[in-house]
Amino acid sequence: MPFLENAGPDDAARPPVWEAFAVVRDQVERLVAVNVLWSLNLAPGVLAMAFPGWPLGLRTVLVIYTVVVIVPLTGMLYGVAAVAAEGQHVGYDSVRDALRVLARPSLRALAPLYLVTAAGVIGWALARHFDQAAVVTLLTAALLIWTVPAQYWGPLLARDPRQSAMSVLRGSVRLALDRPGATLGCWLMVGAVLVVGVISIGGLVLIVPVVAVLLQTCFASSGSESRTR
Fold this sequence. Notes:
86% of the residues lie in helices and 0% in strands. By secondary structure, the chain is an all-alpha fold.
């Protein structure tokens, strides 16, 4: 495997940020293909929101499709990222295996956590609409805190698909508290990458989500290794 063959002692000790971008560099075409697969299934929901003039029934079906499908596909993305971070080549078999292993666990463990996040965002939007400044401030702070351990949900589930939503949540909080500096660094890096993706649009479709997932996976792996030493 070229990634492992080219990795020397210095590469093994490199920071998670450089490790993630090295994986992207070595397998960019494969990771772009996986990212496009994920993005294509997000597109129906995006189109339904972008075109309010479409029939309500059609828009409802498109949104439901995206909401249901994107969770197992996100789990698949984390599974593929774990494979890539270990130095293995990403291909059809790894995508298929990640989807087979993580589809149901994602619906069981990630979906409830994502629903809590969505409820918080909806509550924030309603509070802002009704000009409830105190509630907006409170929910903004809560959502920002919530998203810090949230970046470890996917990597932890990919490592052990048997976990429940609560065990994933507990593990992510524990990992974030164990390494607050690295966790904040990962949070800022992922945020910067997502901002670039939103601005560029094309980056969001082609590579940005998989880069964010790889960053989270590499930071989570680094944190787990440091705890076992």
